[in-house]
Design brief:
Number of helices: 4
Radius of gyration: 20 Å
Largest sheet: 2 strands, antiparallel
Mean pLDDT: 73
């Protein structure tokens, strides 16, 4: 049980760190020759559109899918490996899959948010560099 908690805690910290790192990367827009007031207004409006992306929802869906897949794989592994119960394998697999799915879902949501911002700025005539 201690091993189970240690693995889950480690993966949880890694998932949060990954999501945090990706959330801080803002797309870069070339502002050479651009009216700064108009840019500020367009940037604000595009950020508002991007904020409508449901990052938490994507993370939750990823966590549920990961937990289900992890539980199934863990149960199969537990049933096949001597000394490991199917229930123990399912529990560890669910926790691991849930944490990994949470991180993947959060990353997907953040990427969707960035893409909305990029598209909005490009559609307003700006050159988005990344």
């Amino acid at each position: 049980m201690k091993r189970f908690l240690a693995v889950a805690a480690t993966l949880g910290i890694a998932a949060v760190a990954l999501a945090g790192c990706t959330a801080t990367s803002q797309p870069i827009v070339d502002t050479k020759g651009v009216d700064s007031q108009q840019f500020a207004q367009d940037k604000y409006e595009c950020e508002q559109y991007a904020d409508n992306a449901n990052v938490a929802g994507d993370a939750a869906v990823g966590a549920l899918g990961g937990a289900a897949g992890g539980a199934a794989l863990g149960a199969i592994t537990g049933a096949l490996v001597p000394g490991v119960s199917a229930g123990g394998g399912a529990a560890l697999g669910a926790a691991t899959g849930g944490v990994v799915g949470l991180g993947a879902g959060a990353y997907s949501g953040v990427e969707q948010k960035r893409e909305i911002y990029r598209n909005c700025m490009r559609n307003r005539g700006y050159s988005v560099l990344n």
